[in-house]
Amino acid sequence: MKRLFALSFFCAILFLRYPAFAVDQRQLQELLDKGDYVTFSRLIRPFAEQGDADAQFNMGAFYEQGQGVPRDYLEAARWYQKAADQGQVFAQYNLGVLYLNGLGLHEDAETAMRWFDAAAQQGDPKAQFILGVGYSGGEGVPQNNTTARHWFQLAADQGNDSAQSWLGRFYYEGRGGEKNYDEALKWLQRAADQGVGEAKYQLGRLHEEGKAVPQDYKAALIWYSIAAQQKIVEAQFRLGGMYESGKGTLQDYSRALMWYNIAAASGHYQAEISQGIIARRLSATEQERAERLETDCLAKKYIGC
After folding, report:
1. How many CB atoms lie within 10 A of CB 226?
2. CA-CA distance, 86 to 89, in Å (whole number)?
3. Cα-Cα end-to-end distance for the chain
4. Lowest model confidence (mean pLDDT) among 21-30, 205-214, 293-302
5. What was the pLDDT predicted at 27?
6. Rg (alpha carbons) of the chain, rounded to whole number
7. Residue 247 DSSP class
8. Tens digit of pLDDT for each residue in 77-95?
9. Neighbouring residues of 206: CB distance < 8 A, sequence distance ≥ 6
10. What is the DSSP letter of 35?
11. Which of 239, 282, 284, 279 is nearest to 262 (CA)?
12. Does the predicted model carry a pTM greater than 0.90?
């Protein structure tokens, strides 16, 4: 179930918005600013023990992160459970993360998804996104692309960049509903603007295929190159094809082999096949050039290759 990896939400200042704590708020803020989580956790523990859900969430976060207390996932889960049972949305999400990744608890995708669902119903975009991924792959919940698209849409509307990227791809491929290239372009662009590499790769596909935009191989090459810099393997493979065919650039078999080699090294099956085919076309000198290009590209971390 590790494919659905999610990160916890850590916010030790969440409770400062609530007046329930009979503690000097300025003192607490000073402790946060200094990173004195030991004193901070000691001050809020009594409130957690008295049943305050936000204090319980924060205690869980401290134990999960090992800040102010020794790291202890089981103790983190105990505090998250107390808060989650009271409807504390961040605790519900983080408890789902612990179940999802088997941290301090037996790995349990179904229980994780139940907690993500609880948080998602309260509008948490991270939980909504994870639910979408779960329904897309049928992990912890029945596989259902329509439901997946629903959750991606809700999270994307709140600005979740990963959800925007997945939603764009769902519109592109017609998963969970009809294809809509204009919607795909809109959501992929929003995700790409937030730095999502997969969305940049998908924008390259739109430009290469002329979907929702005029067909433009040069633009496709640029998007693939940007995505390749973020180690998007499919973009690296596509670059090999662009250089092999001369789409959007001068035909360059050595550079094509370089990109196939890079993608194949990450386990891309089609790249492995293309790698062997194009290598047989090249002279020893051209293959040596491809190797030099690859060495240089890796040293530059895929920038300007």
Report:
1. 19
2. 9
3. 35
4. 21-30
5. 78
6. 24
7. S
8. 999 999 999 999 999 999 9
9. 172, 181, 184, 185, 188, 212, 213
10. T
11. 239
12. no
